[in-house]
Design a protein that fits this description.
4 copies of one chain form a homotetramer. With 134 residues, the first copy, chain A, is α+β, with helices and mostly antiparallel strands. Chain A has one domain: Hotdog Thioesterase (Thiol Ester Dehydrase, Chain A). Helices cover 24% and strands 38% of the residues of chain A. Chain A has 3 helices and 5 strands, in the order E-H-H-E-E-E-E-H. Chain A has a 5-stranded antiparallel beta sheet with strand order 1-3-4-5-2. Chains C and D meet through helix 1 and strand 2 of C and helix 1 and strand 2 of D. Strand 2 of chain C pairs antiparallel with strand 2 of chain D.
Chain lengths: 134, 134, 134, 134
């Protein structure tokens, strides 16, 4: 049975830091997106390939609590946990922790769905399969 | 009496769009931040100057509902409305609308606070003044 | 006869600044790209539409001299001048000046070409027309 | 004797790709910067710490030849080679290769110098030492 949790280790890049000397708020959303896409790939769902085929995975809502900022040189872990919320909506619970001391950096909740280029809902078969395995 | 609402008109830049051909989710957070900082400047609060003085305006929580994506060529308006939430926390209600037809693009809610470099809460006098005017 | 020079006025956004408190080097490339695309649009060449049609305008070489950095709050002008270099290559001479005092910020030189999705050279008819008008 | 070459392996993140489905040109500059900063750290020069101390490593000129684009899923290697050019200027020769087949992606040449907050040239002692070892 496929795992519903996933994590990825990354390191702050200096250009991601802003004039306060910490990672700019919007960049956590980039880290979160990258972890979701790597997770999806690990369970057989390729975001780029789906996009080419006209199936668009889209974010409908995002909530992020910022606990503590990352700085230049910090290594960190981004985790995701995937849950089906309704027939066509799924949620990712995501956290970022600093690796040196497991300090919580952000907690996030991302609600997504899947549509075609005309905006009609369409769940990729592989994602439907994935949820049925549980 | 100072206004508590503010809006800014911007235009999508092509590098802000991702492989789906729409503005990448994280970039709306950039638009929102830029509008907040311009708003603060309009009421006498300079984010960059405060940062130099060691007063850091920080985001504690963000919620964004994504209604419809922006595309290459779209012009849009980012609005903010500022409210005091508690002695040390303030909230920005933000919206983005497409200019051509007023279509709602995102709605957001951003909770911020203000700290010094040691992480201690400190509200800039000018912001305190601003809230007292109401 | 169409103009071969173009300029655009923009303002620094705080998220574009890095921990040195100045606009991060890579962001000038964003400003330059945005000005080129707006220029092309002004002469009837829509980057996004061409991309959808499978015609890709691509950069082959970029040179940037950094004279002086932009900071939070600075307004600036990005200019472009377009020249044909060879049957399939064109060049943009670009400059950024600070608006308050015309201080030169960067000078750049961008060589581009146009290919299809298979990597074959193909010049959009409208660009060919444009060069022939001179 | 310290090494003058350095390389770093990274992977494309989907948000780095633009509407053409390839990594946006400006992002290569980000990859290059990150590799330079990691390289400097490896030889004892911490960009963030120097910035806090008021010593600013700055880019004066950049040249990039774009050979072939990176796409979603590509892993790649960014290499740097550091050379002193004059008493106060140093150059980084940088290359990016796709890992799967060593395909050359970009070649770059970055000229940097080091100044204090007043804009006066100042070479960090450790960098001076480093060059003298050769």
């Amino acid at each position: 049975m496929a795992e519903r949790t996933f994590s990825l280790q990354l390191k702050v890049r200096d250009y991601e830091c802003d004039m306060q000397g910490v990672v700019n708020n919007a960049n956590y959303q980039h880290y979160m997106e990258h972890a979701r896409h790597e997770y999806l790939k690990a369970i057989g769902i390729n975001f780029a390939k789906l996009t080419e085929e006209g199936i668009l995975l889209v974010v409908k809502r995002i909530e992020i609590d910022y606990h503590f900022p990352l700085r230049s040189g910090d290594s960190f872990e981004v985790s995701c946990r995937l849950e089906r919320i309704s027939p066509l909506r799924f949620g990712f619970l995501q956290q970022i922790k600093r690796l040196s001391d497991q300090k919580p950096i952000i907690s996030g909740n991302v609600i997504g769905t899947s549509i075609n280029r005309q905006g009609r809902p369409i769940l990729p078969a592989v994602l439907d399969e994935y949820f049925k395995q549980r």
